[in-house]
Write a structure and sequence with these properties.
It is a single chain. The chain is 44% helix and 14% strand. The protein is α/β, with parallel strands linked by helices.
Length: 355
């Protein structure tokens, strides 16, 4: 069900026909609350998914910050990161991301510095500039949100200062963060973030699982403008996709109907209700899926059996040259989600082994 990538969407630079380097694969989680589930059950389900991902060789498990929504349980992102990290062993755990304009850089440095001491070499700090909510809630979180959003590059510099050993001589410090070497990632859904990540020499994660329009332009800008830094010598790209893998195409499409209905409700101003159970892919749902706005938002959705998704992914990796894929899968039952993650892991290992 993924749309073919048009030639005009591709970068100007030549793209190899196959992806030669092993590609890392990870999970992005919003802790979506399914109808009939409590928040506690939802968070426990997130942990179960993280454990399954760890067993399947996933690189990282990121949680996304959102607010004022009945169907999202990841609003206290730092706390949930600690919960997942405490109950796993090797998988990296982090934010995808912390919406920095909502927070004081000092507090974020203290939180993630603390996490780094508790779970050494396992904590990631992905940073975005969007509010992760509506404008009224953004104002309630931080009255000067718009000023902070415009100061995003400077706020990142503050975070870096608080993490640096050299900051021990400063008047304002985050001692728990100094020298912990928590890696920073710049998140984005537009080309602005690509320029910034390249300038800072930081890894770049693009939210193409819901914002597909600027993916190829952003990747091109980031790679062309990248400046090596003490953190990263070569560009590193993480590309977001939706992944729904099941035993058959029909089964995967059925699971995908929950996401279609959620996005339609979002676009039409519907209630932020709990995730609805899947149904058959009816003509009405197919029509919703074919709507241009929905198609554009969910363009990079890989839905089907292992065979179907593997073929789609091979083409996508050849065209994007992504170093890593991070998957979102808003499914109604935790069992389906875990099964999809397992099958996706099998696909990625097969692709990497084939070279």
């Amino acid at each position: 069900m993924v749309l073919p990538i048009k030639k005009e969407d591709m970068p100007i630079n030549d793209i190899p026909g196959t992806h030669k380097q092993p590609v890392a694969y990870s999970i992005l989680d919003l802790a979506i609350v399914s109808q009939g589930n409590t928040i506690k059950q939802t968070l426990n389900n997130s942990l179960a998914l993280a454990k399954a991902a760890e067993a399947e060789g996933y690189t990282r498990y990121w949680l996304a910050e959102h607010h004022n929504s009945d169907n999202i349980g990841s609003s206290a992102t730092s706390l949930l990161i600690g919960y997942v990290a405490e109950n796993t062993t090797t998988i990296r755990v982090g934010s995808g991301g912390i919406m920095l304009p909502n927070h004081s850089p000092l507090i974020i440095a203290e939180q993630f510095g603390t996490l780094a001491h508790l779970y050494p070499n396992r904590i990631d700090l992905g940073l975005g500039r969007a509010p992760g909510t509506d404008s009224q809630t953004a104002q309630a979180i931080r009255s000067d949100f718009m000023k902070a959003a415009h100061s995003f590059p400077r706020e990142i510099s503050k975070i870096q200062e608080y993490f640096s050993v050299e900051n021990k001589q400063a008047t304002v410090r985050a001692p728990v963060a100094e020298g912990t070497e928590v890696p920073l990632y710049i998140l984005g859904s537009s080309t602005d973030s690509a320029h910034l990540a390249a300038k800072l020499g930081l890894p770049y994660a693009f939210a193409s699982h819901f914002a597909s329009t600027h993916l190829f332009n952003a990747l091109r800008i980031y790679r062309d403008e990248f400046r090596p830094s003490q953190h990263l010598q070569q560009p590193y790209t993480i590309v977001g996709i939706n992944a729904y893998v099941a035993d058959t195409d029909a089964e995967a499409q059925q699971q995908f109907t929950s996401l279609i209905r959620m996005f339609v409700a979002l676009l039409t101003g519907g209630a932020k209700e709990a995730l609805q159970p899947p149904t058959e892919m009816t003509e009405e749902l197919e029509g919703m899926w074919q709507h241009p706005v929905v198609q554009q938002m969910l363009k990079y959705s890989f839905v089907g059996s292992k065979q179907t998704v593997k073929k789609q992914l091979q083409a996508f990796l050849a065209e994007t040259r992504a170093d890593e894929l991070i998957t979102a899968s808003t499914m109604y039952t935790p069992e389906d989600r875990i099964k999809s993650a397992r099958l996706f892991g099998e696909i990625m290992r097969e692709i990497n082994e084939a070279g």
